[in-house]
Amino acid sequence: MTAQRQLHLAAFGALGGNHTASWRHPATASAQVLTAAYFKEFARLAERGLFDLIFFPDVLAVAQDRNDVGFQQISSNIPFRAEPISTLALIAGVTEHIGLVGTVSTAHTQPFNVARTFAWLDHLSNGRMGWNIVTTASEAESRNFGVSLAAHEARYARAEEYVDVVRKLWDSWQDDAIIDDKAGARYVDASRVRAIHHHGKYFDVEGPLNVPRPPQGHPVLFQAGASDIGRSFAAQTADAVFFAAQTAAEAKRIGADIKRLAQTHGRSPDHVRLLPGVLVIVAETETQALEKQAALGQLIDRQAGLAFLYELIGVDLSAWPLDGPFPTLDPASIPGIKSRYELLHDMAKREGMNLGQVIERVASAAGHRVVVGDPQQVADQLLEWFDAGLVDGYAIMWPHLPGGLEDFVNLVVPALQKRGVYRTAYAGDTLRAHLALPTLASPI
């Protein structure tokens, strides 16, 4: 008898929540987001909910105003994010099972450092690490490193070589290189360690890595590219893909394209997990859930929403009338996330939304799907796409923290477990095991 397919869930690590107005919610621990206690509580809650992983996004700049010349808008939201690596190291020590995924940009780092960091953390966490690969689409971030934002295609070309180098470094040690032979005075068998001699367009790296091969072989790779070139990179590189989709048709189109591209890159599409983002607002009754949603909506600052839209797509829409249509622009002229602009444009056209209404939706979940209801209704909506085979799970986003996560764990998780689609205990020890992905054997 074939085992029932299991839903995979990632807990989005946000400061206060993922709604623009999350920090203003009276239940949000916004005063605690710079404390270790805040992240320890979040991690323990997520592990109690048996999530596959915790995921921390990152941006290497203070959130700036829509004109990108000052800081007027930073007062209307939490303008920074958790530094992922130190945060994951912290919570690795207070958890035992849950996967730990952090964002690191290929634009402003070097592959040797990233390979070393994730390999070391994979050892310290007993095989629970994952790397969310981003190429950085922000001029503000680039200026913090004294460079100009590279062209879209060039960012992905660099990222492709970057990941190749990181993988070579992880594979520069064989799995059995450590022999710990005290009598023979040999800790490492040197014949099982080799240089990589990488000489490419962007990087020259001799190797080997100065950390033994990670327990998972390779930490799990995540990616969120949704443009044409981004999907190709994700399909070639990632074990799991984050993306935004408002409708089942969008989820089907994006997922099918990623699976198709994975095959063209010689990969099994069964080894790529599809995890769209979804903001969940749940309560014991539908009425209470809708009241929660309405209360958050009343806390939205329109200018903060407009600034967030600018942060996403890199285009200042402040001169456009809020009661007018969402503007039609040439995607090639979008310096930010092109796929997010296209998603918002399609949503506005499909639902007859004006610019002001799009801003409110962006403020709610950055263009991601929003699911509202009682536990059974939320489970129904999540399983609709899952049961249809469109997705493997979700990156769950929060109306406020820690309460939004606690509501999900207490209300939605039991509803999913009763339907037999969600674990009742962790069956494996590594992030690859949680996601039903193979551990990669040493190639040398």
Automatic annotation (TrEMBL):
Residues binding FMN: 58, 103, 152, 156, 227
GO MF entry, a single one: monooxygenase activity
Entry-linked InterPro entries: Diverse_substr_monoxygenases, Luciferase-like_dom, Luciferase-like_sf, NTA_MOA
Top-level taxonomic group: Bacteria
Organism for this UniProt entry: Pigmentiphaga aceris
Keyword Oxidoreductase: yes
Keywords annotated in UniProt: Flavoprotein, FMN, Monooxygenase, Oxidoreductase
Name of protein: LLM class flavin-dependent oxidoreductase
Positions of the Luciferase-like domain: 21-390
UniProt xrefs under Pfam families: Bac_luciferase
Lineage: Bacteria, Pseudomonadati, Pseudomonadota, Betaproteobacteria, Burkholderiales
Family named by the database record: Belongs to the NtaA/SnaA/DszA monooxygenase family.
UniProt cross-references to NCBIfam families, sorted A to Z: FMN_nitrolo (TIGR03860)
